[in-house]
Design brief:
single chain; about 270 residues; mainly beta; Immunoglobulin-like; 14-stranded mixed beta sheet; 2 helices; globular
Length: about 270
């Protein structure tokens, strides 16, 4: 029987796992490296209270042998994915690899017990198309050499993965990306007004976006993670009107170095709402 994460288990996991996961440490001079696997979410914007994912199995391949798939030891469980935003991550498992070996691919497999909770409290099953039953294969973004332990982030975009069907049912077509935390950066800061949550997202010159939703319980804090080196524009979307406006342009990001754009004393202003 599939087991659900109880409230107590989630609290315990939160203590251990809802943390920044840049590098998993390895003793200096060691010939082996600890590699942690973490799950996070690009946020639900509106329409849903919760999305519960039945995480069935995860396997990975490495630069040492791209044809050999290894199962990650995990306990199959149902995870409420929408709580994992703004730097919060859920630890899935840990392995030890030879130093310098990279995880290059991941196969992410979901079970059949996926559900969505609508704003009115209605629980609906999320049907996974048959083509995804063998798992979704992900290439792990990585640009730098690795000589110590590191974290592999599996970023599940729940908002883009849910498809409303015409008959009132919902389908789950997973939109997922994966990257090595040590090779990427995040952009963070605070917004005003502090009680108005917005969707915050970065845009590259190619139009690629990565997003989050600001946290009104923490001075409207936002953190957009998994950014490779480049120049970004930061934008915000009003959740009430869907209007989009620019917060800051020409933000230089160097992979592995984080960018702090504002503080609680000097927050970025949400123009339309302010």
């Amino acid at each position: 029987m599939k087991k659900y994460l109880s409230i107590i288990a989630i609290m315990a996991l939160a203590t251990l796992s809802f943390t920044s996961c840049g590098n998993d440490t390895t003793d200096s001079g060691s010939t082996q490296a600890n590699v942690g696997f973490y799950l996070t979410d690009a946020p639900i914007v509106k329409g849903y209270q919760a999305v519960n994912l039945d995480v069935k199995a995860i396997s990975y391949a490495t630069s040492a042998d791209s044809t050999q798939w290894v199962s990650l030891p995990i306990d199959q469980s149902v995870v409420e994915i929408t709580k994992l935003t703004n730097g919060k991550n859920l630890a899935l498992g840990n392995v030890v690899l030879d130093a310098g070996v990279k995880v290059t691919q991941i196969r992410f497999v979901l079970g059949n017990n996926n559900t969505i909770v609508l704003n009115d409290g209605t629980v609906k099953p999320l049907n996974v198309p048959s083509g995804y039953t063998s798992g979704l294969k992900l290439n792990v973004q990585s640009v730098a050499s690795l000589t110590s332990g590191y974290s592999v982030i599996i970023d599940f975009d729940a908002a883009r993965s849910i498809v409303a069907m015409g008959n009132g049912n919902y389908s789950l077509k997973p939109v997922v990306r994966s990257y090595i935390g040590a090779n990427t950066s995040y952009v963070d800061g605070y917004l005003t007004p502090v009680k108005e949550a917005v969707r915050v997202f970065t845009v590259t010159s190619k139009g690629d976006t990565i997003s989050t939703v600001s946290d009104t319980l923490n001075y409207n804090y936002f953190r957009v993670s998994g950014l490779l080196s480049g120049t970004y524009t930061l934008k915000a979307q009003n959740l009430k009107t869907d209007s989009i406006y620019t917060l800051q342009e020409n933000i230089p990001v160097l992979g592995g170095t984080n960018v702090h754009l504002s503080t609680t004393d000097q927050p970025l202003v949400i123009p339309e709402i302010n």
